[in-house]
Amino acid sequence: MAETADVVVVGAGVVGCSVAYYLSRQGVKVKLVERDGIGSGASTHATGFLSLLGAAFS
């Protein structure tokens, strides 16, 4: 079964998740793709970033 989306967001870091979230709130069908876990890349290692994603997204 093929999936369709209006927008594909590549990368589920802070920015990618924010973009996907706000687009979906506007009714845009969003596909969010990430190679690893959500927020597992540079977002969790950035200076001053506080990870609130929790173990559910590990």
Automatic annotation (TrEMBL):
Spans through the membrane: 6-23
Pfam families (alphabetical): DAO (PF01266)
Entry GO terms, CC: cytoplasm
GO molecular function terms attached to this record: oxidoreductase activity
Domain FAD dependent oxidoreductase: start-end pairs: 6-51
Keywords of the record: Membrane, Oxidoreductase, Transmembrane, Transmembrane helix
InterPro entries referenced in this protein's UniProt entry, alphabetically: FAD-dep_OxRdtase (IPR006076), FAD/NAD-bd_sf (IPR036188)
Matches recorded under PANTHER family: FAD-DEPENDENT OXIDOREDUCTASE DOMAIN-CONTAINING PROTEIN 1 (PTHR13847:SF287), SARCOSINE DEHYDROGENASE-RELATED (PTHR13847)
Protein name: FAD dependent oxidoreductase domain-containing protein
Organism, as annotated: marine metagenome
